[in-house]
Amino acid sequence: MADRRFLKLTIPNDVSFLPIAQKCVREVSIMFGFAGEDIYKIELALEEGITNIIKHAFESSEQNTFDIICEKIPLGIKIVLKEKGIPYDPKQVPEFSPLSDASPDNTGGLGTFLLKKSMDVVSFHNLGNEGKETHLIKYLPAKNIKDYFPASELAVEAPIKEMPAVITEKIEYDVRPMQPHESIEISKGAYKSHGYTFFDEHIYYPDQIVEMNKTGELVSVVAVTKDRKFMGHVALHYPEPESPVAEYTFVFVNPEYRGQGCLKRLTDCLFELPQKRLLGIYSYSVANHPFTQKTILKCGFNDCGIQLATSPATWEFKGIDSDSTQRISVVLGYKYTKKPEPVNIYAPQAHKEIIEKLYKNIGAENKYVNPAGAGPTFETKESSINTRIYATEETAEIFVIKYGSNVVNEIKIILKELCLRHIASITLFLNLEDPNTYFMAPQIEGLNFFFSGILPKTKNGDSLVFQYLNNVKLDYDKIVAYSELAKEILDYIKKRDPNAA
User: CA–CA separation, 236 vs 232, rounded Å?
Assistant: First the structure.
């Protein structure tokens, strides 16, 4: 029996087929629960996406086809436009500003602008020989936490300078997996701890939290008093459906319950839950105060990198005194859930010593080898590269899945597009299990990327992490590194950051 959550439509690169595609996707969207203005926005985005492909991906006289794939996802619909046309050059599409003169001669980039305004997530994926994909995601309407509670109940007091627990006597409480009705309290707790500055807005939508837990994308654990008052929450979030690693995230304890040992118990419970595919867990600890770094170390994580300026300075920490004068950096931590099998690591010569030290710190015993050949080997000219953009954070991630001979130029093009979009902090992941990384990493560093750390078991193997900062003013003296190794990593990065020099 066919999967009712998935539909694939193949059409010619002929604009006259656009209405057929729109009607098909419209009916699928209605089947998936969309209505009203959201249907219009999906149709508009589809029109812009298909028009872009027909105009730019194929020669004017070329007869070809491309695919439209509709998939029901836990929170809405995902539309994939897949084609094998002319390699896409983002430099050809200017950045459209709605504040500029909207004359017929000044609409460059308008289609892409409208596409991004209509959908919740828009991303472009270069798959090398497999062509290119445009991913369009639209979420179903859901209630925000502000729709459940009056503003007076969500209001919090001004941050206090010290952090004594409001409830000083020790209380009894239970720690267990979340129950669906508690998702409202999770959203409310996130607001009470961080206002509306949390990096992932899903946390503010209770219905979405429930759905993500149903599908396994999110695994939530809560602490609740004996009289059923919500205390705190931690979770594992899987970045990809079949990912072997998960992020330890959405971590908060309501201010009145801090000091009860709640976070440690929450974390222990979370890590004891059975997770069959899980090989490792990573975490990001903010580096504008030491408290989360201390907690992470107590939970069994070990430092393996530092990523600079990954979040806006406006991020809030209710009840915690921290520096807010520059973008927030984070310390990357890692914890294996199973003893890792040794793998061949092709560490670039310039960073081999620090890479070995970081692997040793997180408990991995790998083989550090040099490639057999005298230079890189490529099967194709085009690389396979995925890019994720987090607009609210003004940050992006670039994953080099497979190297092509044109990889440096391809990264350069992506980098230019991200800089034009005012992305402040860009993180690049290179596969340390690929011999080409040994040769290509120094060339990529020539684009002003610099060493940031390692991250095992990502979507493209154990990763070497580089960073690029786009006109970010950063005072290294304001970055708080708690452990001795974190201090060493920060000093190593500073010496290689071209911006610091």
Answer: 14
Q: Rounded CA gap, 19 and 25, in Å? A: 10
Q: How many Cβ atoms are within 10 Å of 144's Cβ, its own excluded?
A: 15
> Cα–Cα distance between 216 and 473 in angstroms, integer?
39
Strand, helix or coil for residue 486: helix
Residue 101 buriedness (CB in 10 A; 0-12 / 13-18 / 19+): exposed
Just give the CATH number of 6-139. Answer: 3.30.565.10
264-275 confidence digits (pLDDT tens): 899 999 999 887
- Distance, in Å, from the CA atom of 391 to the CA atom of 330, rounded to the nearest integer, reads 18
pLDDT at 195 (0 to 100): 66
Q: 145-278 domain in CATH 3.40.50.2000?
A: no
Q: What is the pTM of this model?
A: 0.74
Cα–Cα distance measured from residue 417 to residue 435, given in angstroms and rounded to the nearest whole number: 28
Instruction: List the one residue out of 421, 391, 413, 415 whose CA is nearest residue 96.
Output: 421
What distance in Å separates the CA atoms of residue 371 and residue 432, rounded to the nearest whole number?
11
51 CB-contact burial (10 Å; exposed 0-12 / middle 13-18 / buried 19+): middle
pLDDT at residue number 468 = 97
At 181-215, the pLDDT tens digits run 999 888 887 777 666 666 677 788 888 888 889 88
The whole-angstrom separation of Cα 448 and Cα 468 is 6
Non-local CB neighbours of 433 within 8 Å, separated by 6+ positions: 343, 344, 345, 346, 461, 462
Give the β-pairing of 230-237 and 218-225: antiparallel
For 13, counting Cβ atoms within 10 Å of its Cβ (0-12 exposed, 13-18 middle, 19+ buried), the class is buried
- Residue 130's H or E segment, with its range, is none
Rounded alpha-carbon distances, angstroms, from residue 296 to 249, 286, 291: 11, 11, 9
Is residue 282 classed as helix, strand or coil in its secondary structure?
strand
At 333, which amino acid appears? G
Architecture of the domain made up of 344-496: 3-Layer(aba) Sandwich (3.40)
By the 8 A CB rule, do 259 and 216 touch? no
The DSSP bridge partners found for residue 137 are 78, 121
Judged by DSSP in three states, 38 sits in: helix
Residues 6+ apart with CB under 8 A from 431: 400, 401, 437, 460, 461, 462, 463, 464
d(CA 394, CA 312) in angstroms, rounded, equals: 8
Compute φ and ψ for 445, nearest 5 degrees.
Answer: -60, -25
Measured over the CA atoms of residue 230, residue 234, residue 237 and residue 242, the dihedral's sign is negative
Is 344-496 the same fold as 6-139? Answer: no
Longest CA span, the chain: 78
Residue ranges of the chain whose pLDDT lies below 50:
1-3, 89-111, 156-165, 316-320
Domain boundaries, the chain: 6-139, 145-278, 344-496
Distance of alpha carbon 418 from alpha carbon 256, whole angstroms? 41
Residues near 329 by Cβ (< 8 Å), separated by ≥ 6? 286, 287, 288, 306, 307, 308, 309, 310, 474, 479
